[in-house]
């Protein structure tokens, strides 16, 4: 049992002073007692120095893409967009071995923890060898990613991705996609093997993903969902949707429907589903999406980096829609930057300030933070994102000694952390009841970085 005393903490009802939190040996919160007069005079109570808030879920990650960050910012001969970026990504993964996958994922997850993410949704589609053949253990690549998560301490919702085609109308996969391709029974072998091995590991949750409507046929979408649901009735199901204007055009030509519209009508979706991006929406889709219970996974720095477009967050939010954040391609790994960009792009489009707010909470930072926690926990099927009994002890300590934090109380702490801190305001991180980052240092970061550097030497 661990007992923490937090002078100030963000509880589900708002900020509280002098909070005593009890955590059991498995990392679950078993007691929360606010407004204590003073820290109890017991030597096994640890006092937190800073503001204690829940750790943030990162709902959309392709961990290996962190190794490409910074390599795709050079202008090519033709107009550069998502599709030309994808060519570079496909070339990069030609050489990626299972050992490389683990080394890169571990480095990515250390950076995530230090940035304030305590849970990751890994949207995992590289299943096969470089020759495009399944490994003897079909789930090998998934296991490498999960091993990296276990080493770093980050909780993982692993989402093995069903991928079969290169375009709408069941177009055969391209050569560069040979490492991704499975039938439904084949992908279910991976999900079944992982479920058997990790069901009793509290740090790991299993889910399922369809890559996109481009990459699965309607029959596969139905069959895959049915098979995943038979094994994991309440597990998260994710899909990329409407990230690119070209994808919307392709979907219209194929079905006379837009991707989100098609999914809402035919996907049998519910509150356990997450649609990633949804950048290109029309009004009728937006309302349907907001009332469907689906969580929209927004990845503002990647969407900006790829020139995708702007998700209409303000009308979606006003219609009651749920959202979460992800760092996707990991061109940046910064929780505060993702949240800041969510608000800033809307301000730029609308030419207004303070646009994401609630009637009873005018603090943009607090509303963004709390909504992303709630949406993220739901999207990843994890009891996290709240300092409340029955939830994982996933916490961040925000550094109140930063100059910009001077004199900041309660919601101003989050407004400052998100909008004004140009250095990382996350000082300590607890994941599953264990301190994994202390004073901005991850306990295994030197070892993990050395292995990452060795791995990256061959990609020069
Ligand atoms: Zn993605």
Question: Brief description of this entry?
Answer:
With 460 residues, this protein is an alpha/beta fold. It has helices spanning 82-93, 98-115, 140-152, 184-198, 218-231, 245-255, 259-266, 283-292, 300-305, 313-318, 335-350, 364-380, 411-419, 445-457; strands at residues 2-11, 14-23, 29-33, 45-47, 51-54, 56-61, 117-124, 155-162, 204-206, 208-210, 237-241, 273-277, 295-298, 322-325, 395-398, 426-431, 434-438, 441-442.
Topology diagram in text:
Elements: E1 2-11, E2 14-23, E3 29-33, E4 45-47, E5 51-54, E6 56-61, H1 82-93, H2 98-115, E7 117-124, H3 140-152, E8 155-162, H4 184-198, E9 204-206, E10 208-210, H5 218-231, E11 237-241, H6 245-255, H7 259-266, E12 273-277, H8 283-292, E13 295-298, H9 300-305, H10 313-318, E14 322-325, H11 335-350, H12 364-380, E15 395-398, H13 411-419, E16 426-431, E17 434-438, E18 441-442, H14 445-457
Parallel strand pairs: 1-4, 1-5, 6-7, 7-8, 8-9, 8-10, 10-11, 11-12, 12-13, 13-14
Antiparallel strand pairs: 1-2, 2-3, 5-15, 15-16, 16-17, 17-18
Bound molecules: zinc ion.
Zinc ion binds at residues 60, 62, 123, 240, 276, 328.
The count of β-strands is 18
Largest sheet at a glance? Answer: 9 strands, mixed
* Content of β-strand: 15-25%
**CATH architecture heading of the largest domain:** Alpha-Beta Barrel
Q: What is the terminal-to-terminal distance?
A: 47 Å
Small molecules in complex: zinc ion
The CATH class of the largest domain is Alpha Beta
Anisotropy-based shape: globular
CATH homologous superfamily of the largest domain, by name?
Metal-dependent hydrolases
Class by helix and strand content? alpha/beta
Low-confidence stretches: none
Number of structural units classed as domains: 2
**Percent helix among the residues?**
25-40%
Please state the average pLDDT score.
Answer: 95
What's the helix count?
Answer: 14
| CATH fold type of the largest domain | TIM Barrel
Cα-based radius of gyration, to the nearest Å: 21 Å
